[in-house]
Amino acid sequence: MDAKTFDDFIAAFNAHDLDRLLTFFADDAVYSSHSGTEPMGTVFTGRAAIRTALATRFSKSPDGQIVMTSPAIINGDDGASEWYFEFRDEQHRLGRVYGCDIFKFRGNKILVKNVYGKSQTPS
C-alpha cells in the first residue's frame, strides 16, 4: 500500500462510498472492530461481511468522518494510522472515537484492519 492509495481509502470512507471502499480490501480481508462481544471486538472476514459492518456503521453515523491526526505509517506490508471518528448521535450530540488502526497489506489491498479505540461520550 502506498500513501496515495491509503489517502484514497480514507476519502472513500468519508464519502461513505461502500462500493469504492471495498475495492481497497482483499477478497479474504479481516476487519476487527473496536467493540463487540469478543476480546478483540467483532471480527468480520471477507468483503461481504466487511460491507455489512461498514453499512451498519454508516447508517448509525450518517455524518461520521475520519480525521487523521497524523500521517499513516506504511512500511511494506505493515501499516498504522491514528485518527478520530467524529459523529452525531441520535440526539444530535457530538461524539468522537479516538483510535488507531494496525494494518497488514497485500500489495495495495488491505488484508487486515485491526481497530483500537477510545470512545468519548456524546455531549
Strand coverage percent: 35-45%
| Helix segment tally | 3
Shape: globular
Structural class: alpha+beta
User: What is the level 1 CATH name?
Assistant: Alpha Beta
The biggest beta sheet is recorded as:
7 strands, mixed
Q: What is the average of the pLDDT values?
A: 93
Level-2 CATH architecture: Roll
Topology as a string of helices (H) and strands (E): HHEEHEEEEE
User: What's the count of strands?
Assistant: 7
Q: Which parts are unreliable, with pLDDT below 50 for 5 consecutive residues or more?
A: none
Q: How large is the radius of gyration?
A: 14 Å
Euclidean distance between termini CA atoms: 37 Å
- Number of domain units: 1
In brief:
The protein is α+β, with helices and mostly antiparallel strands. It is built from 3 helices and 7 strands, in the order H-H-E-E-H-E-E-E-E-E. It has a single domain, classed as Nuclear Transport Factor 2, Chain: A, CATH 3.10.450.50.
Description:
This protein has helices spanning 3-14, 18-22, 47-60; strands at 25-32, 43-45, 65-68, 73-75, 78-88, 94-106, 109-120. It is an alpha+beta fold and 123 residues long. It has a single domain, classed as Nuclear Transport Factor 2, Chain: A (Roll), CATH 3.10.450.50. Strands 1, 2, 3, 4, 5, 6 and 7 form a seven-stranded mixed β-sheet that branches. It starts with a helix and ends with a strand.
